[in-house]
Input
Amino acid sequence: MSSSAIYTNLGAKSWTYHYDTDVSPVQEFHKRLPGYRETLLVPLDDVAKEFGVKAVFVKDESSRLGLPAFKILGASWGTFRAIADKTGIPLDTTLEDAAVAARKAKITLFAATEGNHGRAVARMGKILHLPTRIFMSRFADEETVKKVESEGAQVTVISGDYDAAVAKASVESSKDPNGLLVQDNAFEGYEQVPAWIVEGYSTLLIEAEEQLAARGLKATITVTPIGVGSLGHAVVAHCKSDGRRIRVLTVEPETAACLHHNLRVGGWTTIETSATIMSGMNCGTVSPISWPVFVKGVDASVTVSDLECHESVQYLHAHGIHAGPCGAASLAALRKVAAIDSNAVGLDSDAVVVLLSTEGARGYTVPKSTCSS
Output
């Protein structure tokens, strides 16, 4: 560990990930969804000059399949695969035929969320004309609840935290003989659907790789936000497979740093969290199917404050990237690592950095500066 603020794992640089399944059908499925198109890979030339690296890019997920976040990629594939598994339809089935099969089976979709995942599952419910029930924690704000409800879902806000919402969604789905839980974090006895959701995120990583290749570049560092860890799992899998040697930097809120804590103590545990403007990352438990991948494949982990994140939101907005706090966390992480220990992820003159901006602009309470002005 190079600093008290940064966790580093030197062994991750040479570790290799091996896919258990072929993820190429995932992209073909996503191309069948209404409104599919690649999201933008936006250069941040000023940031690259600031850090003395070759290039910095933002993979801008502020508008993905008509929703303001990347989550629909995992939720759509996870929902489709779960329906296919339950009904026996082949994986090249059209959305229309999948909807017919799901309605015949009287399927109801269930999920827990801090916002974007639940809205994405609800969108799949709308596309497939299926009833959807979404459970949210006590930290849910009214605006986010209304956005999930706008997709046609029934939303229940519970008195507990996110982990409690996941437990509630699981219990309620098990009470329904045709209930289908589409959750992006695994727990004992529930691993397959979260694994499919991880596969779903491979689309944005392959897109970014192809967009860089069109510029004659290859990534050397990818920075990813961490909530329960499904996106981060996909990032590590991509960056450490097929001969790629891309370093992975993860970022979490200081008040909800479950992965960072686990990496430091060297074991998988649940932590208590508190409110953060990075609400989609307010998770106390790393998905257990992702933890073994993280402990071997994450090169560096850092936490950021709400104020640091807010400053990065403002910077990105000023440069035409309309990111929300979870999306801007990647830039905040890069700035922090560059200031403390640039060697932690290989920030040198040959570095090509990809920042994953996972959500579009949204309202939040602006954190107060601790400095007098």
About this structure: The chain has 14 helices and eleven strands. The two ends are 35 Å apart (CA to CA). The longest helix spans residues 71-87.
